[in-house]
Amino acid sequence: MNDQPAVEPKRQGLSRVWHAFFYSVEGLRAGWHEPAFRQEAILAVLVLPAAWWLGQSWTETVLLIGVVVAVLVVELLNTAVESAIDRVGPEWHDLSKRAKDMGSAAVLLSLLLCGGVWLSALWRWWAA
To answer: pLDDT value at position 15?
Structure first.
């Protein structure tokens, strides 16, 4: 019986990139099981096509898309922090609460930024 943890072989070049891509896909699948990420991803699919219609320049279109993607990225990072904290143990600890609260605050800030950018673009479109 081997009690040694399994160690993944070191990969280089295209093999590393190839495997990293599939690890990322697994991360997206794991994120999909989180209700907040799923809701934000569905909203992103509905909202992103509007960026091409609403954006009046390439830069504005990219900004509208970028803030939506940023929300998804921050949500995934928040979920990763929460998962790591939960793995440590179920007992309450002030530092665990602090880490989770900070992750939640990061999501809130990304949502506020996203909403502000989209509202300002809509405001300009309606005012024109």
So the answer is: 82
